[in-house]
Amino acid sequence: MQDVIENQAKAAKVREIMVSYHCDACLKPIPIWYDVIDWDPTRVDNPRIALPVVESFDFEHVPSSVAQEVREALGCLSVHAHNGFAAMCRRAVAALIADFGEGGAGRVEAHLVEMLSMSGLAGEWEELARTVLVPSSEDAVEIPDTDETGAAVLLSLLRDLTYQLYTRPGRVRAAAAKP
Predict the structure, then answer these.
(1) Mean pLDDT, residues 1-5 taken together
(2) Domain boundaries, given as residue ranges, for the chain
(3) Nearest residue to 133 via CA among 90, 70, 69
(4) From CA 43, how far away is CA 58, in angstroms rounded?
């Protein structure tokens, strides 16, 4: 049967194939695309995961309005849409600020400045973080081009914001409520 399939693929000059592996940890299938270089002998190159991988994110104690925006942002990131991810990060932080109400923007901005300063990235990444996450005015719709590294920094800042402003205080409240 395998020879029949291979002969049909050769005759049709198939340029891509998919192979499925199983994850060692969970045994779920992982489909991998390959470009076919040659059929005689069979050679393939350029492996890539066929299904997007969504980054993990701790949503404990994060309100649904904020979590929904973060999930959409992670969806953009999973398909390497870095500029879309940056735009959705802005929406997620806007939802976070709206949830905190008056003073929310100042609180978020102060936390971002503190995080960038503590990490030693205040000069290098501050402009991207401020422009994307807390624009100076309602008119600031322009989002700078974001590459993979910029997206990783924004993701880290977004994780830290939600952890410090929701998850950490929520865990402390939960611990205080235990008998």
Answers:
(1) 69
(2) 2-49, 64-172
(3) 90
(4) 41
CA 15 to CA 152: how far, in whole Å? 33
Enumerate the β-bridge partners of residue 38: 43
Q: Which residues contact 108 (CB under 8 A, 6 or more apart)?
A: 93, 96, 97, 100, 133, 134, 161, 165
Measured N-to-C along each axis, helices 82-100 and 64-78 cross at an angle, to the nearest 10 degrees, of 170
CA distance 108 to 113: 9
Please answer whether residues 116 and 133 qualify as being in contact, where contact means their C-beta atoms are separated by less than 8 angstroms. Answer: no
CB 31 within 8 A of CB 20: yes
Angle (CA) 61-65-70 rounded to 5° is 80
pTM for this predicted structure:
0.73
d(CA 97, CA 90): 10
The SS3 call for residue 43 is strand
> Lowest-pLDDT range, 21-25, 62-66, 156-160?
21-25
Q: Phi and psi (nearest 5°) for 4?
A: -65, -45
Please name the residue ranges forming H helices in 30-147: 64-78, 82-100, 104-119, 122-133
Measured CA angle at 77 (ends 19, 22), to 5 deg? 25
